[in-house]
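for the recovery benchmark. tokens below, seq after
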């Protein structure tokens, strides 16, 4: 009897999601989504010219694509180096239990209520299920993004890694792309949007005191795939005191690490997150209208004060018996491989 109940509940959830899909399609019809493209096409002897190529199919890239399609700019393409469903950090190196932002913040729905995470969640868990959620679970956010891409039929090419943007005469850009796509390794575009997230800020960096002195098998950057099962029963050191440091310490302890020590250069951990005010001040919604100077000033302010771990992340890590210490004022000056205990 219990088995029958589970099947019936699953069927109802699936039907509810189908109803949401129908609602999305109707909402899009109300705003004439998918109308005739108004942009005059460009012709080039080397092949098709996209009006826009978006690099990165994470949440920002998908949202940008939807925004362009709403404006009836449909000659676009999104490319991403990852396999389908693995774009962005959420299913790879992001190791927080939940998103750090409050659940009520809307984003890539662009004002369409049926496209919000809340609508997607309630279609499967009901309104009471939404009320029971404190913050959005990380894995569920990724599932939402996969659904968002499917329901909007966004034009994404996966397994396509951008190697070079080459300016051509006449305002055209040639994108050199490598990957599994059998067609030409070049794409032509009038405009290129880099929606590469945190990876677009530069290379992932491991300090030389570690990279030059410690065996590669004994350290990893948090952006890399890490086999945490190999750390079971071992003591680990985490260099850095930002939010991801505590995410990874917590994840390692949950996977059986014996102890996690977090080392921080600062005299004390930041206690106030300067980015939190963006969530209620209207800055998120209107950030794009600020001048470049104002944007840089705001970002410089955020970087000066740094982003501490959220309270729940900090408390979750501290709740583990193996989370034995936070070493403030303990920047690393040198490193070497130790004995058997390493």
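predicted aa per position
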């Amino acid at each position: 009897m219990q088995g029958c109940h589970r099947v019936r509940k699953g069927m109802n959830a699936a039907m509810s999601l189908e109803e949401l899909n129908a609602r999305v399609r109707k909402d899009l019809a109300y705003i004439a989504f998918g109308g005739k493209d108004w942009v005059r096409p460009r012709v080039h002897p080397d092949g098709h010219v996209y009006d826009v190529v978006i690099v990165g199919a994470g949440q920002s890239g998908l949202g940008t694509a939807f925004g362009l399609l709403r404006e009836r700019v449909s000659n676009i393409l999104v490319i991403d180096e990852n396999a389908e469903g693995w774009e962005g950090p959420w299913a790879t190196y992001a190791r927080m239990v939940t998103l750090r932002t409050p659940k009520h913040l809307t984003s890539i729905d662009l004002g369409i209520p049926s496209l919000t995470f809340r609508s997607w969640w309630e279609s499967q868990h009901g309104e009471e299920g939404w009320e029971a959620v404190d913050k959005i679970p990380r894995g569920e956010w990724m599932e939402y993004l996969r659904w968002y891409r499917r329901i909007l039929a966004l034009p994404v090419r996966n397994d396509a890694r951008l190697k070079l943007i080459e300016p051509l005469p006449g305002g055209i850009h040639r994108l050199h792309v490598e990957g599994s796509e059998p067609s030409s390794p070049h794409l032509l575009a009038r405009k290129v949007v880099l929606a590469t997230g945190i990876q677009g800020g530069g290379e992932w960096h491991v300090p030389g005191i570690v990279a030059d002195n410690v065996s590669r098998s004994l350290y990893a950057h948090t952006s890399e795939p890490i086999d945490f099962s190999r750390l079971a029963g071992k003591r680990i050191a985490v260099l850095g005191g930002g939010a991801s440091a505590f995410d990874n310490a917590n994840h390692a302890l949950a996977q059986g690490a014996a102890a996690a020590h977090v080392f921080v250069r600062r005299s004390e951990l930041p206690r106030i997150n300067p980015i939190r005010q963006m969530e209620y001040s209207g800055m998120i919604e209107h950030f794009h209208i600020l001048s470049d100077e104002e944007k840089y000033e705001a970002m410089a302010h955020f970087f000066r004060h740094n982003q501490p771990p959220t309270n729940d992340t900090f408390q979750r890590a501290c709740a583990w018996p193996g989370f034995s210490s936070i070493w403030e004022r303990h920047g690393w000056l040198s490193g070497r491989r130790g004995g058997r205990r390493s």
